[in-house]
Amino acid sequence: MNATGNHDAPNFSSPSRSEGEAGRGLLSPVETLKRESRGLRGTLRESLEDAITGSLRESDAQLLKFHGSYQQDDRDVREERRLQKLEPAYSFMIRTRLPGGVATPAQWLALDALATRYGNDTLRLTTRQAFQIHGILKHDLKPTIAAINQTLIDTIAACGDVNRNVMVSANPVESRAHAKVQAHAVALSEHLLPHTRAYHEIWLDEQQVVGAEASEPIYGPTYLPRKFKVGFAIPPVNDVDVFSQDLGLIAIIEGGELLGYNLLAGGGMGTTHGDARTYPRLADVLGFIRADQVITAATAVLTTQRDHGNRSDRKLSRLKYTIDRLGLDAFKREVEARLGEPLQPAREVHFDHNGDRFGWVEGFDGRWHHTLRIESGRLRDTGTVRGLSGLRAIAAEHRGDFRLTPNQNLVIANVDAADRARIDALLADHGLDDQLRGATFRRFALACVALPTCTLAMAEAERYLPDILDRIESVLIQHGLRDEPLLFRISGCPNGCSRPYLGEIALVGKAPGRYNLMLGADFEGRRLNRLYRENIDEAAILAELDMLFARFAAERAGGEHFGDFVVRTGIVRAPVAIAVELGA
Predict the structure, then answer these.
(1) Phi, psi (rounded to 5 degrees) for 126
(2) Which of the residues are catalytic?
(3) Closest Cα to residue 306, out of 319, 296, 293?
C-alpha cells in the first residue's frame, strides 16, 4: 500500500535509474527503435510509398503512433483472408490532438467530410475528448492527415510515448475561471509537443533542413518510457476521472477566481491479465500549485518519469509503477527539486459525480449549452438515428462551438438563446432528440472500440454495448431500479481505454464472449472496483446481476449508490479509496 493508501499493489524495490542508466543493456526493442528513428522519421516515407502492401513496416507502424495513427486490420475477416492467402485487410485509425475537446463548426464539417471520403462513414468521440476516424487505407493516410492540419487541428502526439491529448472538464464556460482552465490545458498541450519536425516533413511536405536536427529538450532522444496522460478537473464534476490520469490537476476556484490546482500523479488504468505485477492505480495527491506554475510543475512530473521510468519492461513503464518503485515521498522530493520550491499543502475539494449533465444548461454569460448523449461516442447514420448527418446540419448553422466530453458525449456549446429552438428542431429531425430513452444507467455507459479493429481486444465492447445494455436494463426494471444511476463500463481487454476499473459495474474482456465482472467503484471516480467473478459469459453475468440487484433493492441504505452498497455489505472486499483529498 502506498503513502496515501489508494491501492494494495506490490511495492517494487528496484533501485531508481536515470534515463542513461535505466535498463542499460536491457532496453526494450521500442527504446532502441526510438533512439535510432532519426527524430521519429524512421522509414515512414518509404513505407507509405510501398504499393505492394496495405501495411507499413513493423518499425514504422510503431513510430506512426507518435504521429497520431494506428495501423489496424479487420479481425472479422482475418482468418478468411489467411485461407485465401491474402494479407490482412489493413486500414488505419487517425486520432486528433484536441485539448479539452473543443472544435469549431468549420472543423467539425471538415472532419465529417474526411470521415466520409476516406474513412468508414463514422466519426468517433473518444474518452480522451478527441476525434477518431477509422477505416483509412494506406494511400489515403497522408492526404487525410494533411487535410486535418488545414483545419488547424493536428494529430501530433495523439498516440505514442509522449503526452497524449490533454483533457479538461467539459463545457468550461460556466465562469471566467473555467475558461482559464481551458487556456492552461491548451498551453500545456503545446508546451509538451515533441520538437522534431518529422511530422511536418512526412505529412505536410516541409523540407528537411540538413544539419539542423531539432533536439528534444523535454523528452530527450528516446521520449518517455510509455504514454503520459493529463487531465484537468473542475469540481464538483469529475468527468475527466482525474484520479486515473498520470498527471491530474484539480482546479481550486474561490469566489469565481482560479487560485491554482491540486497536483496529482500516478494514475493509470492499464493492466495485463495473469500478470500480478500489473494493476490499475489511482493517482496520489502531491500538493497545491499556483496557477502560474502549471507548465513548470507538469514538466517536473513528466521529466521525473522520463529519467526514472522503466525502459526495460513496457508492462511496468507507466508513471504509476515508477512512483511505487521509488516511493511517493522520494518521487515528490524529486518533483519539488525540479520545480524549484516545495509544493504547498493541497486544498480541500469535493466531487459530486463523474458523469455528464444532459440537455440545456445556461452559462455565466447567458449563452446556452446542450449536452447530447452519443452511445459509445460513435456518430453514424443508421435507421431513424442519423447522428452524422444531424451534426453536419447543426454545424452548418451553429455559431458557437462543439465540446467533446470525457464520457463520449457531445456539448453543442455557446448557443444564443434565440438559436435554441432551431437546434432542437434539427436534433428532432435527425432522431437525436431521444437518446436518453430507457433506463437511467444507459447514459453513464462507456465502451472502448475493441473488435474488429483493435489489435489488443479479446472480446467485444462497442458492438456489444447496445445488447448488454438492453439485457441489464430488463433486470433493473424487474427490481424497480429503472431510474437508478449506475456507472457501467465495458472494455474488450484489460488495457483500460474505457476506464473500466472506475465503473460501479464493469466488464473487462477475457476471451470471445467472456468477461471479468468488476464491482465496487464509487460514483465520484475516487475508488477502484474489484474483481467479483472471473471469465464468465453473458448468462452468468446476468444471473449475478439479478441476484445483486435484488439485494440492492431490498437492503440499500437511503440514497446509497450501488458501488457503495456492494462494498458496505461485503459483496466485494472494500477497495481502498483515496485516503483524503488533502494528500495527508
Answers:
(1) -95, 170
(2) 95, 164, 227, 229, 448, 454, 493, 497
(3) 319
